[in-house]
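Exercise 7. Given the components listed, write out the predicted structure of the assembled complex. Treat all entries as one system.
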Amino acid sequence: METQTSLLSIQKSIWDGRIPLQIVLAPSESRTYDQTDPYLIASPRVSYLPSLLPKLRAFFSSSLIEPNSQPHDGWFAFEGVPLKWHYPIGLLFDLYAGADPASKTSTRGDDSPEAESALPWRLTVHFSDWPDEDLVRLDADGMVMNDAFINSVKEADFLRNGTAKGIMSLSKEDTFGLWKAVEGVDLPAFQRISNILLPPPSQPFRNIPIRIFLPLPPDAESPSLKMIQSPLPPSIPTASIQSSQLLSSRSSPGMQPQTVGTVLHTLLPNLFPSRRTPILAKPVLHGAVLPMSAPIEEVVRSSAYGDGWAYLVIRMMG
Amino acid sequence: MLSAFPVLTVEEFDAACRALVEMAPKEGGWSMRLVTTVSLPSHASTDGVFFGPGRLIGVFLFFFFFEFNSTRQMVPASISHNASRRSRANNWPILPKRLWNMIRSAIFASRDMSTCPDSSPQEALIRDPSPSLHIDYNIQLSPTYRVPVLYFALRSTHAPLGLDAVYQYVVPEQYKKELKSVGVMGGISFGYHPDSGAPAFFVHPCNTANAMAHTADAQSVTPAIYLLIWLGLVGHCVNLHVPREFFAQDGTSPA
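Answer.
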């Protein structure tokens, strides 16, 4: 019960988490070129960029050279890279902003200049010249976004249960309500519906919905993201040596909880030669370094994005 | 016999892709290519079967070149050359070399062209005056559902095409209603190709395992037959028909 309470409090902190954004209109689309005032907003990590478009379109309307563009013509770029709108803002920030992730060992006030300069995160919004090679177009009714979100929810649900029955049997209202709750960052409404989907805490997930993003090579010309996904059961057979320390009361005999460290060591042995200590690289989730000892089921139960997935970003150390 | 039927393991999918390419008829204006995680091959040829280092992640099926005609029906571009419309479902159109080069150019337009032999994509596209549509299909194994997923991209000499165009030009009439009735936007979504990250359409895989369980049984299917049956189930609704030649090979009939 105590675990459940702390998982919920972590979830609340994550949903409260916001990233300060400074959004400028693409100079080529502005009557005043680069003299247009930027738009500033603290945007929830779990939300999606297109939800900002109606406000941005209104804010920049007097500056737009092309006055007939619609909010759903809008797209975002960071340093020239079009940002995939189906990823939550928090993930995009962890992937691209280059900010130093928070960790237990880093002390406040001792921030390096690089960390300082990552905030606010400076994005460019465009309302013309949709990059069709990179981004799926949005529609006026938001159905394309809703569809992408629900597809992602379905996959997470399938991994958790081994079937797609949960999300398939969810009422139409609740299916739409889940998306509305995430779009509106309404945690109570989200929890009501997501509790219908999630197996109860006493019943372990079949597989854990985690996606791992690899570091982008610094010289990549077209930074296409490399992502890893593999079936990850919540428990694994006890490894001979560390069994005694890692065996927790929740696991069956001979099994130990799968941790962030065991996953990374198994999938990326070169980057994570140790299961317990990050040596060459570190896993980042919601802007923070994830403890290697964290059981992955608890990570997902507390810290998944609205679509049910935990998106880990691997950052090189040093 | 498949170990995890009705789903596939990575190894079985790998074997299925290789077998499919082996079984493919070598004649005709189309081609398949195996793709590895390492890098895309630097050149293509009409019987292009590629093996490279790294793990196999899918098979590309290259073919089909369509022109819009006045009734907005799609017909293979090669109809006027040889293939009759009647046999379209069973025979691949045989494309003249010039058309093939254009297809190839379209496929590789966004990639490294410098090593692509005798190709000049811009020139080829400019020379072609009629609005045309090229579809390239790609099969990948879903890491979530562990079944094959059919991805496809539309390349048009006109404006970029969305889901409306898929239903208008790609989905045969008899499947339209059924496909549109499921999910938020129907049984086809516009998402991202898992390997290239480029926008691509895909047919939803969440019911594939069920459909396979009802169509085949674990005892009698090899990985290749699994993939062919799956292509038969999923391909038709997006105008991808398994050519008869696949089944004509020494006793590997899926029947």
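Discussion: The interface with chain A takes residues 110, 143-146, 160, 162, 183-185, 189-192, 194, 196-199, 204, 206-207 of chain B (CB under 8 Å). The longest strand of chain B covers residues 56-68.
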